[in-house]
Amino acid sequence: MEERLKNILDCAIGLFNRYGIRSVTMDDICRELGMSKKTIYHYVASKEELVKAMLDSRIQNLTEISVSASGLSMNAIDTLVAYSKLLGEYFKNLKANPSLDYDLKKYFPAVYRAYMDQRNQAVHRRLAENIRLGIDQELYRPDLHADLLADLFMIKVENLTEPDTVTDGAYSSKKMYKVMIENHIRGIATKKGVKYFEKNIPGK
């Protein structure tokens, strides 16, 4: 991405996070950057284009998470543990500013739906690939339904990042997340997989 376009996008995202998408105008972005409207419109045609670029950056973050959670020496269990932790942080960060998603849903519904479809497909694909890899490595049971498990696991991870998930502070979100991951892996793993998990995953 060209440096000036990146600066425009970074500025717009910062303002969107602070004031909401609806409240921020292209004039506000120009003033913040000290840039003329003629210059900014050379790079972006509208606020909607900036919103699309912001959501594209979220998808790029997902790609980076997938790469970060993989390694030549990592098997399916290692990868799932690493990916799920990064994915949980990703969802948590997105929900830190609920008004932003509210504006997206209300004022850019088509753009938001397209983003959600792309996001869910990317996460689903990564999780389903992990199930199939684990089966091939004999770490997961061979009778698993990869696509169904991928969807269920994604729902569980996202739900645990909701602000009201922890009732009356009985359990920390970190504790709940740890137990959820462990139970998930124990539920899909073979004896070989459980043995590996117990021996090699720190803190489980």
Q: Could you list some keywords that capture this structure?
A:
204 residues, mainly alpha, Arc Repressor Mutant, subunit A, Tetracycline Repressor, domain 2, 10 helices
Q: Radius of gyration in whole Å, from Cα?
A: 20 Å
Which ranges are low-confidence, i.e. pLDDT below 50, for 5 or more consecutive residues? none
The total of beta strands comes to 0
**β-sheet strand percentage:** under 5%
Highest-level CATH class of the largest domain? Mainly Alpha
According to CATH, the fold-level topology of the largest domain is Tetracycline Repressor, domain 2
Distance between the termini: 40 Å
- The level of helicity is over 70%
Secondary-structure content class = mainly alpha
The CATH homologous superfamily of the largest domain is termed Tetracycline Repressor, domain 2
Number of domains: 2
Order of helices and strands: HHHHHHHHHH
Q: What's the overall geometry?
A: elongated
Largest sheet, strands/sense/barrel: none
Separate helix tally: 10
By CATH, the architecture of the largest domain is named: Orthogonal Bundle
Mean pLDDT: 90
Briefly summarize what is shown.
With 204 residues, the protein is an all-alpha fold. 74% of the residues lie in helices and 0% in strands.
Provide an overview of this structure.
The protein has 204 residues and is mainly α. It has 2 domains: 1-45, Arc Repressor Mutant, subunit A (Orthogonal Bundle); 47-200, Tetracycline Repressor, domain 2. It is 74% helix and 0% strand. The chain has 10 helices and no strands. Helix 4 packs parallel to helix 7 (109-136), helix 5 runs antiparallel to helix 7 and helix 7 packs across helix 8. The longest helix is centred in the middle third of the chain and has 28 residues, at 109-136.
